[in-house]
């Protein structure tokens, strides 16, 4: 039986890429820079932000961008334009918890970028019991050792977990750790053909579809 459902955040639990594209172009506009194309954004999606911005806007002042990005990011969060989790996804988490599963986040975000998700008044409170990110894991996706801290701290074995993610790197990490992987394709950023089929236990077109899959594993 699956005891823990480990969930990626961006473009899995929450559709992030489109909002991030708009946010980052607003920052570029404030800096007097031309906008990036959606194609460039998609091609670099999943990379660390400042590494990606080197390709999205060559010659960019990264320090100034990072400073302005924090301001715009907070405004987007306050306006409900970023990190908005659909009600049906929250309901799916509720079904998993009621079914006796522990829900954990495993994301490539930094601790600063997930801090607001872990506040006691956030919608994830009572649904998600822990989060693993760049600042509390020694290794990062697609390295399978990204799961080391999670497994050690929870006492779970890989066969008791399933990872839900949206990228081939998520699948590689899970497979290498001996954890079953479900590809969530709702964002449209990736297609099932982008994944090595050896790494994928199942695929879903919307996040709530994971519930019966988890229950059947």
Task: Explain what you see.
- By secondary structure, the protein is of the alpha/beta class.
- It folds into 2 domains: 4-15 and 83-216, HAD superfamily/HAD-like (Rossmann fold, 3-Layer(aba) Sandwich); 17-78, Orthogonal Bundle (DNA polymerase, domain 1).
- Helix content is 40%, strand content 12%.
- The chain is built from 9 helices and 6 strands, in the order E-H-H-H-H-H-E-H-E-H-E-H-E-E-H.
- It has helices at residues 17-30, 38-44, 49-56, 62-78, 87-98, 111-114, 148-154, 168-177, 210-216; strands at residues 4-7, 102-106, 130-132, 161-165, 180-184, 202-204.
- It has a 6-stranded parallel β-sheet with strand order 3-2-1-4-5-6, sandwiched between helices.
- Helix 6 links the parallel strand 2 (102-106) and strand 3 (130-132).
- The protein is globular and about 55 Å long.
Number of domains: 2
Beta-strand content estimate? 5-15%
Q: What is the overall pLDDT average?
A: 96
Sketch the topology as an H/E string, one letter per element.
EHHHHHEHEHEHEEH
The CATH architecture of the largest domain comes to 3-Layer(aba) Sandwich
Instruction: Give the biggest sheet.
Output: 6 strands, parallel
Number of discrete helical segments = 9
CATH superfamily of the largest domain: HAD superfamily/HAD-like
Model regions low in confidence, pLDDT < 50 over at least 5 residues: none
> Helix- and strand-based class?
alpha/beta
CATH topology of the largest domain: Rossmann fold
Strand numbers in spatial order across the main sheet: 3-2-1-4-5-6
Shape: globular
> Count of DSSP E strands?
6
Helix fraction bin: 25-40%
